[in-house]
Amino acid sequence: MRATSTPYILLGTLFTAGGYGATFLISVWFRAQGGSDIDAGNTLGMALIGTLIGVPLVGWCAGRIDAARLAALGALALAGGYALLGSLDGIEPAHLPRMAALLIGLGWGMFYLGAPLAFSERLTDTDRGPGFTRFSAFQMTGICGSPVVLSALVTQGGIGIEQAFLCVAAGGVIATVLLGTFSAREPRQEREAALRPWVIKIFTLARSTAVRPIVMAGLGGAVFSGMMAFQGSLAEGTSATASTFFAVHAVTAVASRLALVHRLSRWPRTPLVICLLGCLIVGLACLLGMAIHPGFQIAAAALTGAGYGLLYPVIQTWAVNASLPQDRHAALTWFVVAYFVGIFGFPAIGGWLLVTAGKSWFVGCLVAVAVLELAVAVGGVGNKRLGDR
């Protein structure tokens, strides 16, 4: 792959990831319209349905259609969802916000599998670890940077959340052009006549160590969506702000990924995973101290940014490299499916728990899920380097 083509997929990733980051403001939008976190969680549940359509679609068709083109279509669908959401005057009728969430989930699901798949297909085994780390740095910048920028536009720029969503839609259109350009500049040489099977290969993956990072992706996605989507509610009534958490988390995650891009693959996997999940668990526990002092929120953002921010590319590379070459497509597809079950499935549970049981129980639930993820990792991780099978 030519170095001059890489910026197109990385910048396309940045803009599309900003669309997912904007979902962290959906709960704010619902509360501004007189709704609750339960309404936001139920609406984001529709995004899960969208992803469960988009991810299998890319998984089956990526052999016949370039995954980069499928990712571009995903960015366009995401743009359509935000265009619809930004045009609404309120939460009624309820099916319109849910339709917007369905489009957002469909687009994000298509992109989230299509873009790394297109990138992976054009990288060697040696370059895949550093490549995924660099790719995920741009992705995290978009995810965490978007709510910071949009919040500033709303609070200081004087625009409404609806107009901010329309800006996100425009970013999705730009991403569509960038990803389409990447596909044109780096055409894939081989085409497959048949659809790629991936569902049944879960039985093969279950007999390998690749199943563990796949399960971890789902658990980690639940933790990430919980602490990010409801950060505004956690900060409510304290002197902390959600934008501070997003900014510190993003800076820490991106800086650590870029600084360690060539070192992660050389470190033993077991102590690395334990250390990163330890940082994540301690960071989540710090969220309980936000009512005491905003410094706890900053500590939580930094620790979760370093822990989750570095853990994700580590387990993503592990899932791919721990699979046989003919199973890597299926491994990445299942990895993304598990991630989205956590990302969009947990908010419905988390929103209900936050409203009915309170912040302490909600944070305790996040900690428990992170501990379970650590148990899955330690239960079968050998003392290997990241790139080893």
Remind me, CATH topology?
Growth Hormone, Chain: A
Count of domain modules:
1
CATH C-level: Mainly Alpha
Q: What shape does the CA trace take?
A: globular
* CATH architect. name: Up-down Bundle
The helix fraction, in percent, is: over 70%
Roughly how many Å is the radius of gyration? 19 Å
Number of helices: 15
Main beta sheet: strand number and arrangement? Answer: none
Run of helices and strands: HHHHHHHHHHHHHHH
The CATH homology group name: MFS general substrate transporter like domains
Mean pLDDT rating: 85
Structure write-up:
- This protein has helices at 6-21, 26-32, 37-61, 67-86, 95-121, 125-155, 161-185, 202-206, 211-229, 231-235, 242-259, 269-286, 295-321, 328-356, 359-380.
- It is mainly alpha-helical and 389 residues long.
- The chain is built from 15 helices and no strands.
- 76% of the residues lie in helices and 0% in strands.
- The longest helix is centred in the middle third of the chain and has 31 residues, at 125-155.
- Helix 9 (211-229) packs antiparallel against helix 13 (295-321) and helix 12 runs antiparallel to helix 13 (295-321).
Topology:
Blueprint: H1 6-21, H2 26-32, H3 37-61, H4 67-86, H5 95-121, H6 125-155, H7 161-185, H8 202-206, H9 211-229, H10 231-235, H11 242-259, H12 269-286, H13 295-321, H14 328-356, H15 359-380
Task: Sum up the structure in keywords.
389 residues, mainly alpha, Growth Hormone, Chain: A
In short:
The protein has 389 residues and is mainly α. 76% of the residues lie in helices and 0% in strands.
